[in-house]
Amino acid sequence: MSAVWDYLFGSxxxxxxxxxxxMMIVGLGILLHLQLGVxxxxxxxxxxxxxAGLYAFGIMQVTYDVGFWPALLVATAAGGVLGxxxxxxxADLDDDGVLAATLxxxxxxxLAIDSEKDITGGRVGLGTIDFPFDVGKRTDLAWLAILxxxxxxxxxxxxxxxxxxxxxxxxxxxxxxxxxxxxxxxVKRTKVGVMALTSAGMGALGGLYGPIVHFLFPTQLTVAxxxxxxxxxxxxxxxxxxxxxxxxxxxxxxxDIVIKLYVPLPKDLLEHAFPVTKQIIFGxxxxxxxxxxxxxxLGRMRRERHVKGLSRV
Amino acid sequence: xxxxxxxVIIGLTxxxxxxxxxxxxxxxxxxxxVINVAFAETITLGAYFAQWVNVAFGASFYLSLAxxxxxxxxxxxxxxxxxxxxxxxxxxxxxxxIIISLGLSVLLRYALQFVFGYEARFxxxxxxxxxxxxxxxxxxxxxxxxILVVVLALLFYLFVQKTxxxxxxxALASDADLAKVSGINPLLTTLVMWFMAGAAGGLAGxxxxxxxxxxxxxxxxxxxxxxxxxLVGGARGLRGVILAGMxxxxxLSALKLExxxxxxxxxxxxxxxxxLKLRGNRFRELAKV
Lengths: 313, 289
Known about the structure:
The complex is a heterodimer. By secondary structure, chain A is an all-alpha fold.
Protein backbone atom coordinates (compact mmCIF):
# COMPACT_ATOMS: atom_id res chain seq x y z
CA MET A 1 0.00 0.00 0.00
CA SER A 2 2.78 2.31 1.03
CA ALA A 3 4.69 1.44 -2.18
CA VAL A 4 1.66 2.38 -4.29
CA TRP A 5 1.27 5.65 -2.35
CA ASP A 6 4.96 6.45 -2.88
CA TYR A 7 4.69 5.63 -6.59
CA LEU A 8 1.66 7.88 -7.10
CA PHE A 9 2.56 10.76 -4.77
CA GLY A 10 6.31 10.34 -4.39
CA SER A 11 6.96 13.67 -6.15
CA UNK A 12 4.15 15.86 -4.78
CA UNK A 13 5.72 19.14 -6.00
CA UNK A 14 5.83 17.91 -9.61
CA UNK A 15 2.36 16.41 -9.34
CA UNK A 16 0.95 19.66 -7.95
CA UNK A 17 2.66 21.77 -10.64
CA UNK A 18 1.36 19.43 -13.36
CA UNK A 19 -2.14 19.74 -11.94
CA UNK A 20 -1.80 23.56 -11.82
CA UNK A 21 -0.96 23.52 -15.55
CA UNK A 22 -3.85 21.16 -16.24
CA MET A 23 -6.32 23.39 -14.38
CA MET A 24 -5.00 26.49 -16.15
CA ILE A 25 -5.51 24.88 -19.57
CA VAL A 26 -9.00 23.70 -18.55
CA GLY A 27 -9.95 27.20 -17.35
CA LEU A 28 -8.65 28.89 -20.50
CA GLY A 29 -10.29 26.17 -22.59
CA ILE A 30 -13.71 26.79 -21.01
CA LEU A 31 -13.39 30.51 -21.81
CA LEU A 32 -12.22 29.74 -25.35
CA HIS A 33 -15.23 27.42 -25.67
CA LEU A 34 -17.49 30.46 -25.08
CA GLN A 35 -15.55 32.44 -27.71
CA LEU A 36 -14.92 29.82 -30.39
CA GLY A 37 -17.33 26.96 -29.75
CA VAL A 38 -20.37 29.09 -28.93
CA UNK A 39 -19.88 32.55 -30.50
CA UNK A 40 -17.66 31.47 -33.40
CA UNK A 41 -14.78 33.84 -32.59
CA UNK A 42 -11.47 32.16 -33.46
CA UNK A 43 -9.20 33.67 -30.81
CA UNK A 44 -5.62 32.69 -31.69
CA UNK A 45 -4.13 35.04 -29.11
CA UNK A 46 -5.16 33.29 -25.87
CA UNK A 47 -1.59 33.58 -24.55
CA UNK A 48 -1.75 37.38 -24.96
CA UNK A 49 -4.92 37.89 -22.87
CA UNK A 50 -3.69 35.46 -20.24
CA UNK A 51 -0.24 37.06 -20.29
CA ALA A 52 -1.68 40.56 -19.91
CA GLY A 53 -3.33 39.41 -16.67
CA LEU A 54 -0.24 37.54 -15.51
CA TYR A 55 2.03 40.54 -15.96
CA ALA A 56 -0.52 43.10 -14.69
CA PHE A 57 -0.72 41.02 -11.50
CA GLY A 58 3.05 40.70 -11.27
CA ILE A 59 3.69 44.42 -11.85
CA MET A 60 1.12 45.37 -9.21
CA GLN A 61 2.60 42.96 -6.67
CA VAL A 62 6.31 43.45 -7.32
CA THR A 63 6.75 46.97 -8.72
CA TYR A 64 3.93 48.75 -6.85
CA ASP A 65 3.68 46.47 -3.80
CA VAL A 66 -0.10 46.24 -4.08
CA GLY A 67 -2.05 43.58 -2.15
CA PHE A 68 -3.38 40.36 -3.65
CA TRP A 69 -7.03 41.34 -4.24
CA PRO A 70 -6.39 44.74 -5.89
CA ALA A 71 -3.66 43.10 -8.01
CA LEU A 72 -6.05 40.35 -9.10
CA LEU A 73 -8.64 43.01 -9.92
CA VAL A 74 -6.11 44.86 -12.09
CA ALA A 75 -5.18 41.55 -13.82
CA THR A 76 -8.84 40.89 -14.57
CA ALA A 77 -9.33 44.46 -15.80
CA ALA A 78 -6.21 44.22 -18.02
CA GLY A 79 -7.56 41.11 -19.73
CA GLY A 80 -11.03 42.65 -19.97
CA VAL A 81 -9.92 45.96 -21.47
CA LEU A 82 -7.70 44.15 -23.97
CA GLY A 83 -10.63 41.89 -24.84
CA UNK A 84 -12.94 44.90 -25.21
CA UNK A 85 -10.56 46.61 -27.65
CA UNK A 86 -9.96 43.35 -29.55
CA UNK A 87 -13.71 42.69 -29.67
CA UNK A 88 -14.29 46.17 -31.12
CA UNK A 89 -11.61 45.54 -33.78
CA UNK A 90 -12.83 42.08 -34.82
CA ALA A 91 -16.59 42.71 -34.62
CA ASP A 92 -16.88 43.36 -38.38
CA LEU A 93 -14.00 41.19 -39.57
CA ASP A 94 -14.19 37.76 -41.19
CA ASP A 95 -12.27 34.77 -39.83
CA ASP A 96 -8.98 35.75 -41.50
CA GLY A 97 -9.13 39.23 -40.01
CA VAL A 98 -9.93 37.76 -36.58
CA LEU A 99 -6.89 35.46 -36.85
CA ALA A 100 -4.64 38.39 -37.78
CA ALA A 101 -6.03 40.75 -35.13
CA THR A 102 -5.93 38.28 -32.21
CA LEU A 103 -2.43 37.12 -33.16
CA UNK A 104 -1.35 40.76 -33.43
CA UNK A 105 -2.75 41.58 -29.98
CA UNK A 106 -0.89 38.64 -28.43
CA UNK A 107 2.32 39.71 -30.19
CA UNK A 108 1.90 43.32 -28.99
CA UNK A 109 1.53 42.10 -25.39
CA UNK A 110 4.68 39.99 -25.77
CA LEU A 111 6.68 42.83 -27.38
CA ALA A 112 5.48 45.36 -24.80
CA ILE A 113 6.57 43.09 -21.94
CA ASP A 114 9.91 42.49 -23.63
CA SER A 115 10.54 46.17 -24.39
CA GLU A 116 9.32 47.95 -21.23
CA LYS A 117 12.10 46.57 -19.01
CA ASP A 118 11.74 49.24 -16.33
CA ILE A 119 8.26 48.03 -15.47
CA THR A 120 8.23 44.37 -16.51
CA GLY A 121 11.85 43.37 -15.96
CA GLY A 122 12.08 42.28 -19.61
CA ARG A 123 13.97 39.07 -20.23
CA VAL A 124 15.65 39.26 -16.81
CA GLY A 125 12.27 38.45 -15.27
CA LEU A 126 9.89 39.87 -12.68
CA GLY A 127 9.56 38.47 -9.19
CA THR A 128 9.17 37.17 -6.70
CA ILE A 129 5.44 36.67 -6.37
CA ASP A 130 4.28 34.75 -3.33
CA PHE A 131 1.06 33.06 -2.34
CA PRO A 132 -1.29 35.50 -0.55
CA PHE A 133 -1.43 33.21 2.49
CA ASP A 134 0.86 30.77 4.25
CA VAL A 135 -0.43 27.52 5.72
CA GLY A 136 2.94 25.87 5.90
CA LYS A 137 3.70 22.82 3.76
CA ARG A 138 0.15 22.67 2.47
CA THR A 139 0.09 26.19 0.93
CA ASP A 140 0.54 24.89 -2.61
CA LEU A 141 -2.22 22.32 -2.08
CA ALA A 142 -4.55 25.03 -0.75
CA TRP A 143 -3.79 27.14 -3.84
CA LEU A 144 -4.59 24.15 -6.03
CA ALA A 145 -7.93 23.78 -4.24
CA ILE A 146 -8.66 27.46 -4.97
CA LEU A 147 -7.77 26.90 -8.62
CA UNK A 148 -10.11 23.89 -8.74
CA UNK A 149 -12.83 26.13 -7.28
CA UNK A 150 -12.26 28.89 -9.87
CA UNK A 151 -12.33 26.40 -12.76
CA UNK A 152 -15.46 24.84 -11.24
CA UNK A 153 -17.15 28.26 -11.20
CA UNK A 154 -16.15 28.84 -14.85
CA UNK A 155 -17.59 25.44 -15.82
CA UNK A 156 -20.79 26.17 -13.93
CA UNK A 157 -21.05 29.57 -15.69
CA UNK A 158 -20.46 28.05 -19.14
CA UNK A 159 -23.19 25.47 -18.55
CA UNK A 160 -25.55 28.21 -17.33
CA UNK A 161 -24.81 30.26 -20.45
CA UNK A 162 -25.89 27.33 -22.66
CA UNK A 163 -29.29 27.26 -20.98
CA UNK A 164 -29.88 31.03 -20.84
CA UNK A 165 -31.38 33.50 -23.37
CA UNK A 166 -27.92 35.13 -23.50
CA UNK A 167 -26.45 31.76 -24.49
CA UNK A 168 -29.01 31.39 -27.28
CA UNK A 169 -27.97 34.82 -28.54
CA UNK A 170 -24.30 33.72 -28.53
CA UNK A 171 -25.18 30.45 -30.32
CA UNK A 172 -27.24 32.35 -32.90
CA UNK A 173 -24.30 34.71 -33.50
CA UNK A 174 -21.87 31.84 -33.87
CA UNK A 175 -24.10 29.60 -35.98
CA UNK A 176 -25.40 32.08 -38.52
CA UNK A 177 -24.31 35.69 -38.07
CA UNK A 178 -26.16 37.19 -41.07
CA UNK A 179 -29.40 35.53 -39.97
CA UNK A 180 -28.95 36.72 -36.39
CA UNK A 181 -28.32 40.25 -37.70
CA UNK A 182 -31.41 40.12 -39.92
CA UNK A 183 -33.45 39.16 -36.85
CA UNK A 184 -32.17 42.38 -35.25
CA UNK A 185 -29.99 40.61 -32.75
CA UNK A 186 -27.21 42.93 -31.50
CA VAL A 187 -24.45 40.79 -33.06
CA LYS A 188 -21.67 43.36 -32.87
CA ARG A 189 -22.40 44.26 -29.23
CA THR A 190 -22.64 40.57 -28.39
CA LYS A 191 -19.22 39.80 -29.87
CA VAL A 192 -17.58 42.76 -28.12
CA GLY A 193 -19.25 41.79 -24.85
CA VAL A 194 -18.26 38.14 -24.97
CA MET A 195 -14.67 39.02 -25.90
CA ALA A 196 -14.43 41.49 -22.99
CA LEU A 197 -15.98 39.12 -20.45
CA THR A 198 -14.06 35.97 -21.41
CA SER A 199 -10.78 37.84 -21.84
CA ALA A 200 -11.26 39.29 -18.34
CA GLY A 201 -11.54 35.67 -17.18
CA MET A 202 -8.32 34.82 -19.02
CA GLY A 203 -6.64 37.80 -17.33
CA ALA A 204 -7.84 36.62 -13.91
CA LEU A 205 -6.47 33.11 -14.59
CA GLY A 206 -3.18 34.76 -15.56
CA GLY A 207 -3.16 36.58 -12.22
CA LEU A 208 -3.78 33.35 -10.34
CA TYR A 209 -0.87 31.72 -12.17
CA GLY A 210 1.60 34.35 -10.89
CA PRO A 211 2.08 32.87 -7.38
CA ILE A 212 2.57 29.41 -8.92
CA VAL A 213 5.60 30.35 -11.01
CA HIS A 214 6.89 33.09 -8.62
CA PHE A 215 9.03 34.59 -11.43
CA LEU A 216 7.61 35.94 -14.70
CA PHE A 217 9.40 35.83 -18.05
CA PRO A 218 8.14 36.87 -21.50
CA THR A 219 9.00 33.36 -22.75
CA GLN A 220 6.10 32.06 -20.64
CA LEU A 221 3.70 33.69 -23.12
CA THR A 222 4.59 31.67 -26.19
CA VAL A 223 2.14 30.37 -28.77
CA ALA A 224 2.51 26.92 -27.12
CA UNK A 225 -0.04 28.04 -24.50
CA UNK A 226 -2.56 28.90 -27.22
CA UNK A 227 -1.86 25.64 -29.06
CA UNK A 228 -2.34 23.59 -25.86
CA UNK A 229 -5.67 25.30 -25.11
CA UNK A 230 -6.98 24.96 -28.67
CA UNK A 231 -5.86 21.31 -28.86
CA UNK A 232 -7.57 20.46 -25.57
CA UNK A 233 -10.80 22.18 -26.61
CA UNK A 234 -10.89 20.72 -30.13
CA UNK A 235 -10.07 17.21 -28.91
CA UNK A 236 -12.65 17.28 -26.12
CA UNK A 237 -15.35 19.00 -28.16
CA UNK A 238 -15.39 22.72 -28.86
CA UNK A 239 -19.17 22.97 -28.54
CA UNK A 240 -19.37 21.35 -25.10
CA UNK A 241 -18.59 23.13 -21.80
CA UNK A 242 -16.86 19.96 -20.58
CA UNK A 243 -14.89 19.65 -23.83
CA UNK A 244 -11.85 21.53 -22.55
CA UNK A 245 -11.77 19.42 -19.38
CA UNK A 246 -11.87 16.10 -21.25
CA UNK A 247 -9.42 17.35 -23.89
CA UNK A 248 -6.97 18.70 -21.30
CA UNK A 249 -7.04 15.39 -19.43
CA UNK A 250 -6.21 13.54 -22.66
CA UNK A 251 -3.41 15.93 -23.65
CA UNK A 252 -1.84 17.89 -20.76
CA UNK A 253 -2.94 15.28 -18.20
CA UNK A 254 -1.43 12.45 -20.19
CA UNK A 255 1.81 14.22 -21.21
CA ASP A 256 2.56 16.62 -18.34
CA ILE A 257 1.41 14.43 -15.50
CA VAL A 258 1.18 10.73 -16.37
CA ILE A 259 4.13 10.32 -18.77
CA LYS A 260 6.37 12.95 -17.15
CA LEU A 261 5.90 11.63 -13.62
CA TYR A 262 5.19 7.95 -13.97
CA VAL A 263 6.97 6.75 -17.13
CA PRO A 264 10.70 6.24 -16.47
CA LEU A 265 12.15 8.15 -19.45
CA PRO A 266 15.89 8.96 -19.70
CA LYS A 267 16.68 12.55 -18.65
CA ASP A 268 18.02 13.52 -22.09
CA LEU A 269 14.87 12.23 -23.78
CA LEU A 270 12.69 14.08 -21.26
CA GLU A 271 14.50 17.38 -21.87
CA HIS A 272 14.65 17.42 -25.68
CA ALA A 273 12.69 14.76 -27.53
CA PHE A 274 9.70 14.63 -25.16
CA PRO A 275 8.48 18.26 -25.49
CA VAL A 276 9.07 18.15 -29.25
CA THR A 277 7.13 14.88 -29.60
CA LYS A 278 4.33 16.34 -27.48
CA GLN A 279 3.95 19.31 -29.83
CA ILE A 280 4.05 17.02 -32.90
CA ILE A 281 1.23 14.94 -31.42
CA PHE A 282 -0.76 18.10 -30.54
CA GLY A 283 -0.41 19.32 -34.13
CA UNK A 284 -1.42 15.93 -35.57
CA UNK A 285 -4.39 15.75 -33.18
CA UNK A 286 -5.67 19.15 -34.36
CA UNK A 287 -5.53 18.00 -37.98
CA UNK A 288 -7.06 14.56 -37.51
CA UNK A 289 -9.81 15.56 -35.10
CA UNK A 290 -11.00 18.47 -37.25
CA UNK A 291 -10.86 16.41 -40.44
CA UNK A 292 -12.46 13.22 -39.16
CA UNK A 293 -14.33 14.06 -35.95
CA UNK A 294 -14.86 17.84 -36.03
CA UNK A 295 -17.04 17.91 -32.92
CA UNK A 296 -14.37 16.21 -30.85
CA UNK A 297 -14.60 13.42 -28.29
CA LEU A 298 -17.88 14.57 -26.72
CA GLY A 299 -19.71 15.49 -29.94
CA ARG A 300 -22.55 18.00 -29.97
CA MET A 301 -24.90 19.00 -27.12
CA ARG A 302 -27.51 16.36 -26.31
CA ARG A 303 -30.39 18.72 -27.02
CA GLU A 304 -28.98 19.49 -30.49
CA ARG A 305 -28.31 15.93 -31.62
CA HIS A 306 -31.52 15.65 -33.66
CA VAL A 307 -31.36 19.14 -35.17
CA LYS A 308 -29.58 18.98 -38.51
CA GLY A 309 -27.51 21.92 -39.70
CA LEU A 310 -27.36 23.60 -36.31
CA SER A 311 -23.64 23.19 -35.98
CA ARG A 312 -21.20 25.49 -37.75
CA VAL A 313 -18.94 22.55 -38.35
CA UNK B 1 16.48 63.54 -47.05
CA UNK B 2 19.15 61.64 -45.20
CA UNK B 3 16.50 60.04 -42.99
CA UNK B 4 14.31 59.07 -45.95
CA UNK B 5 17.25 57.59 -47.87
CA UNK B 6 18.29 55.58 -44.83
CA UNK B 7 14.74 54.31 -44.22
CA VAL B 8 14.27 53.32 -47.87
CA ILE B 9 17.64 51.60 -48.30
CA ILE B 10 17.54 49.73 -44.99
CA GLY B 11 13.86 48.89 -45.37
CA LEU B 12 14.19 47.52 -48.89
CA THR B 13 17.38 45.55 -48.34
CA UNK B 14 16.37 44.07 -44.97
CA UNK B 15 12.70 43.33 -45.68
CA UNK B 16 12.91 42.34 -49.37
CA UNK B 17 12.11 38.66 -48.62
CA UNK B 18 8.86 39.82 -46.98
CA UNK B 19 7.56 40.75 -50.45
CA UNK B 20 8.29 37.25 -51.78
CA UNK B 21 6.70 35.55 -48.77
CA UNK B 22 3.62 37.77 -48.96
CA UNK B 23 3.22 37.05 -52.68
CA UNK B 24 3.31 33.32 -51.98
CA UNK B 25 0.76 33.53 -49.21
CA UNK B 26 -1.46 35.83 -51.29
CA UNK B 27 -1.53 33.28 -54.14
CA UNK B 28 -2.97 30.63 -51.81
CA UNK B 29 -5.32 33.11 -50.12
CA UNK B 30 -6.77 34.42 -53.35
CA UNK B 31 -7.23 31.04 -55.03
CA UNK B 32 -8.14 28.71 -52.17
CA UNK B 33 -9.56 31.37 -49.80
CA VAL B 34 -7.37 29.76 -47.14
CA ILE B 35 -5.14 31.53 -44.65
CA ASN B 36 -2.51 28.86 -44.36
CA VAL B 37 -0.73 29.23 -41.02
CA ALA B 38 1.57 26.37 -42.07
CA PHE B 39 2.99 28.71 -44.72
CA ALA B 40 5.26 29.86 -41.87
CA GLU B 41 6.87 26.43 -41.96
CA THR B 42 7.26 26.55 -45.75
CA ILE B 43 9.39 29.64 -45.10
CA THR B 44 11.33 27.88 -42.33
CA LEU B 45 11.90 24.74 -44.40
CA GLY B 46 13.05 26.88 -47.33
CA ALA B 47 15.86 28.13 -45.10
CA TYR B 48 16.69 24.61 -43.88
CA PHE B 49 16.66 23.12 -47.41
CA ALA B 50 18.98 25.86 -48.71
CA GLN B 51 21.33 25.52 -45.74
CA TRP B 52 21.42 21.73 -46.13
CA VAL B 53 22.22 21.86 -49.88
CA ASN B 54 24.75 24.63 -49.25
CA VAL B 55 26.64 22.87 -46.47
CA ALA B 56 26.14 19.14 -47.16
CA PHE B 57 26.92 19.33 -50.89
CA GLY B 58 29.12 22.42 -50.90
CA ALA B 59 26.76 24.08 -53.39
CA SER B 60 26.90 27.83 -53.93
CA PHE B 61 24.17 29.86 -52.23
CA TYR B 62 22.49 30.57 -55.57
CA LEU B 63 22.27 26.88 -56.53
CA SER B 64 21.00 25.99 -53.05
CA LEU B 65 18.45 28.79 -53.43
CA ALA B 66 17.03 27.26 -56.61
CA UNK B 67 16.87 23.74 -55.11
CA UNK B 68 15.32 25.06 -51.92
CA UNK B 69 12.59 26.82 -53.94
CA UNK B 70 11.75 23.58 -55.77
CA UNK B 71 11.73 21.50 -52.56
CA UNK B 72 9.56 24.04 -50.74
CA UNK B 73 7.18 24.08 -53.72
CA UNK B 74 6.89 20.28 -53.64
CA UNK B 75 6.31 20.36 -49.87
CA UNK B 76 3.55 22.94 -50.38
CA UNK B 77 1.83 20.66 -52.94
CA UNK B 78 2.11 17.69 -50.56
CA UNK B 79 0.46 19.66 -47.72
CA UNK B 80 -2.33 20.69 -50.10
CA UNK B 81 -3.00 17.13 -51.25
CA UNK B 82 -2.67 15.55 -47.80
CA UNK B 83 -4.50 18.12 -45.68
CA UNK B 84 -6.20 21.05 -47.39
CA UNK B 85 -7.79 19.09 -50.25
CA UNK B 86 -9.17 16.60 -47.74
CA UNK B 87 -10.58 19.50 -45.68
CA UNK B 88 -12.09 21.01 -48.83
CA UNK B 89 -13.75 17.71 -49.76
CA UNK B 90 -15.12 17.19 -46.27
CA UNK B 91 -16.60 20.71 -46.20
CA UNK B 92 -14.65 21.87 -43.15
CA UNK B 93 -15.58 25.43 -42.05
CA UNK B 94 -13.20 28.42 -42.45
CA UNK B 95 -12.24 28.76 -38.76
CA UNK B 96 -11.61 25.03 -38.57
CA UNK B 97 -9.39 25.17 -41.69
CA ILE B 98 -7.32 27.87 -39.98
CA ILE B 99 -7.03 25.64 -36.88
CA ILE B 100 -6.06 22.67 -39.08
CA SER B 101 -3.34 24.80 -40.71
CA LEU B 102 -2.18 25.84 -37.22
CA GLY B 103 -1.94 22.14 -36.33
CA LEU B 104 0.04 21.45 -39.50
CA SER B 105 2.31 24.37 -38.69
CA VAL B 106 3.03 23.04 -35.19
CA LEU B 107 3.55 19.51 -36.52
CA LEU B 108 6.04 20.62 -39.19
CA ARG B 109 7.88 23.08 -36.90
CA TYR B 110 8.63 20.41 -34.33
CA ALA B 111 9.03 17.48 -36.74
CA LEU B 112 11.80 19.32 -38.60
CA GLN B 113 13.75 19.45 -35.32
CA PHE B 114 14.00 15.66 -35.45
CA VAL B 115 15.37 15.88 -39.00
CA PHE B 116 17.65 18.93 -38.77
CA GLY B 117 18.36 19.01 -35.02
CA TYR B 118 17.47 21.47 -32.25
CA GLU B 119 20.27 23.97 -32.86
CA ALA B 120 20.34 26.87 -35.37
CA ARG B 121 22.22 25.99 -38.58
CA PHE B 122 24.44 28.42 -40.44
CA UNK B 123 25.22 28.82 -44.15
CA UNK B 124 28.75 28.59 -45.50
CA UNK B 125 29.05 31.61 -47.77
CA UNK B 126 32.09 33.79 -48.58
CA UNK B 127 32.29 36.93 -46.41
CA UNK B 128 30.38 39.83 -48.03
CA UNK B 129 31.83 43.19 -49.16
CA UNK B 130 30.59 46.31 -47.39
CA UNK B 131 29.18 49.17 -49.49
CA UNK B 132 27.66 52.58 -48.91
CA UNK B 133 24.85 54.44 -50.68
CA UNK B 134 23.74 57.92 -49.51
CA UNK B 135 25.80 57.28 -46.40
CA UNK B 136 23.94 54.07 -45.57
CA UNK B 137 26.00 50.92 -45.20
CA UNK B 138 24.92 47.51 -46.46
CA UNK B 139 26.57 44.29 -47.59
CA UNK B 140 27.05 43.08 -51.15
CA UNK B 141 24.98 40.10 -50.14
CA UNK B 142 22.03 42.25 -49.07
CA UNK B 143 22.21 44.09 -52.39
CA UNK B 144 22.26 40.82 -54.37
CA UNK B 145 19.38 39.47 -52.29
CA UNK B 146 17.38 42.64 -52.93
CA ILE B 147 17.98 42.51 -56.71
CA LEU B 148 17.12 38.79 -56.79
CA VAL B 149 13.96 39.36 -54.81
CA VAL B 150 12.89 42.16 -57.18
CA VAL B 151 13.54 39.95 -60.22
CA LEU B 152 11.75 36.96 -58.68
CA ALA B 153 8.79 39.09 -57.58
CA LEU B 154 8.56 40.49 -61.09
CA LEU B 155 8.69 36.97 -62.58
CA PHE B 156 5.95 35.76 -60.22
CA TYR B 157 3.85 38.78 -61.10
CA LEU B 158 4.31 38.22 -64.86
CA PHE B 159 3.59 34.51 -64.45
CA VAL B 160 0.26 35.19 -62.77
CA GLN B 161 -0.73 38.11 -65.02
CA LYS B 162 0.59 37.14 -68.46
CA THR B 163 0.90 33.36 -68.85
CA UNK B 164 -1.78 30.77 -69.68
CA UNK B 165 -1.25 29.14 -66.27
CA UNK B 166 -1.67 32.48 -64.57
CA UNK B 167 -4.90 33.15 -66.44
CA UNK B 168 -6.18 29.72 -65.42
CA UNK B 169 -5.30 30.41 -61.78
CA UNK B 170 -7.14 33.74 -61.93
CA ALA B 171 -10.14 32.16 -63.66
CA LEU B 172 -10.33 29.46 -61.00
CA ALA B 173 -10.09 32.08 -58.24
CA SER B 174 -12.87 34.21 -59.75
CA ASP B 175 -15.41 31.49 -60.55
CA ALA B 176 -14.42 27.85 -60.02
CA ASP B 177 -17.52 26.36 -61.70
CA LEU B 178 -17.19 28.52 -64.80
CA ALA B 179 -13.48 27.72 -64.97
CA LYS B 180 -14.22 23.98 -64.90
CA VAL B 181 -16.81 24.35 -67.68
CA SER B 182 -14.17 26.20 -69.72
CA GLY B 183 -11.97 23.09 -69.64
CA ILE B 184 -9.55 24.16 -66.90
CA ASN B 185 -8.23 21.23 -64.86
CA PRO B 186 -8.83 22.52 -61.30
CA LEU B 187 -6.50 20.06 -59.55
CA LEU B 188 -3.56 20.67 -61.87
CA THR B 189 -4.05 24.44 -61.82
CA THR B 190 -4.37 24.46 -58.02
CA LEU B 191 -1.22 22.35 -57.69
CA VAL B 192 0.70 24.73 -59.96
CA MET B 193 -0.40 27.63 -57.80
CA TRP B 194 0.47 25.88 -54.50
CA PHE B 195 3.87 24.99 -55.99
CA MET B 196 4.49 28.62 -56.97
CA ALA B 197 3.36 29.80 -53.54
CA GLY B 198 5.57 27.27 -51.76
CA ALA B 199 8.55 28.15 -53.93
CA ALA B 200 8.08 31.86 -53.13
CA GLY B 201 7.86 31.08 -49.39
CA GLY B 202 10.89 28.79 -49.55
CA LEU B 203 12.99 31.38 -51.39
CA ALA B 204 12.00 34.03 -48.85
CA GLY B 205 13.04 31.65 -46.06
CA UNK B 206 16.39 30.99 -47.75
CA UNK B 207 17.07 34.75 -48.01
CA UNK B 208 16.13 35.29 -44.36
CA UNK B 209 18.11 32.23 -43.31
CA UNK B 210 21.34 33.25 -45.02
CA UNK B 211 21.10 36.66 -43.29
CA UNK B 212 20.97 35.01 -39.86
CA UNK B 213 20.54 31.22 -39.56
CA UNK B 214 18.07 28.45 -40.24
CA UNK B 215 16.14 27.85 -37.02
CA UNK B 216 12.72 26.37 -36.12
CA UNK B 217 10.98 29.70 -35.36
CA UNK B 218 12.24 31.55 -38.46
CA UNK B 219 8.98 31.41 -40.40
CA UNK B 220 6.69 31.78 -37.41
CA UNK B 221 8.49 34.97 -36.29
CA UNK B 222 7.70 36.53 -39.67
CA UNK B 223 4.27 35.00 -40.22
CA UNK B 224 2.18 37.75 -38.63
CA UNK B 225 3.78 40.54 -40.64
CA UNK B 226 3.42 38.50 -43.85
CA UNK B 227 -0.25 37.82 -43.06
CA UNK B 228 -0.97 41.49 -42.36
CA UNK B 229 0.73 42.53 -45.62
CA UNK B 230 -1.44 39.98 -47.49
CA LEU B 231 -4.66 41.12 -45.82
CA VAL B 232 -4.00 44.81 -46.32
CA GLY B 233 -2.21 44.76 -49.69
CA GLY B 234 -4.17 41.82 -51.12
CA ALA B 235 -7.20 44.05 -51.62
CA ARG B 236 -5.34 45.51 -54.62
CA GLY B 237 -4.08 42.20 -56.06
CA LEU B 238 -0.46 41.08 -56.32
CA ARG B 239 0.65 44.62 -57.13
CA GLY B 240 -0.93 45.71 -53.84
CA VAL B 241 0.89 42.95 -51.97
CA ILE B 242 4.25 44.02 -53.47
CA LEU B 243 3.62 47.66 -52.59
CA ALA B 244 2.36 46.83 -49.09
CA GLY B 245 5.40 44.60 -48.50
CA MET B 246 7.85 47.27 -49.59
CA UNK B 247 5.94 49.98 -47.70
CA UNK B 248 6.00 47.85 -44.55
CA UNK B 249 9.75 47.36 -44.82
CA UNK B 250 10.40 51.07 -45.28
CA UNK B 251 7.98 52.10 -42.51
CA LEU B 252 9.49 49.60 -40.08
CA SER B 253 13.04 50.78 -40.76
CA ALA B 254 11.91 54.44 -40.47
CA LEU B 255 10.34 53.70 -37.11
CA LYS B 256 13.44 51.79 -35.96
CA LEU B 257 15.58 54.81 -36.82
CA GLU B 258 13.48 56.93 -34.47
CA UNK B 259 12.46 54.63 -31.62
CA UNK B 260 13.59 51.36 -30.02
CA UNK B 261 13.16 48.34 -32.37
CA UNK B 262 10.60 46.52 -30.22
CA UNK B 263 8.50 49.68 -29.83
CA UNK B 264 8.74 50.22 -33.58
CA UNK B 265 7.25 46.77 -34.16
CA UNK B 266 4.45 47.55 -31.69
CA UNK B 267 3.62 50.81 -33.53
CA UNK B 268 3.60 48.97 -36.86
CA UNK B 269 1.26 46.25 -35.55
CA UNK B 270 -1.11 48.86 -34.05
CA UNK B 271 -1.14 50.66 -37.42
CA UNK B 272 -1.99 47.39 -39.19
CA UNK B 273 -4.79 46.64 -36.69
CA UNK B 274 -6.26 50.11 -37.30
CA UNK B 275 -6.15 49.56 -41.07
CA LEU B 276 -7.86 46.18 -40.58
CA LYS B 277 -10.54 47.85 -38.48
CA LEU B 278 -11.09 50.73 -40.91
CA ARG B 279 -11.31 48.50 -43.98
CA GLY B 280 -13.44 45.83 -42.31
CA ASN B 281 -14.57 42.86 -44.39
CA ARG B 282 -13.87 44.38 -47.74
CA PHE B 283 -10.60 42.50 -48.25
CA ARG B 284 -12.07 39.32 -49.60
CA GLU B 285 -14.52 41.10 -51.88
CA LEU B 286 -11.79 43.32 -53.26
CA ALA B 287 -9.13 40.63 -53.47
CA LYS B 288 -8.36 39.64 -57.03
CA VAL B 289 -5.21 37.87 -58.11
